[in-house]
Amino acid sequence: MVSAGRKPEATPLSVYVDRSDPHAPVISVGGDLAFTTAGPLRAEIDRALGERPAAIVLDFADLLFIDSTGLSVIVHAWREGQQCGTTLRLRSTPRFLDTILDMTGVAGLLARPLAAPGVERSGTGLPGRPAATA
Question: 12, 97, 130, 133: which one has the fewest Cβ atoms less than 10 Å from its Cβ?
Answer without folding.
Answer: 133
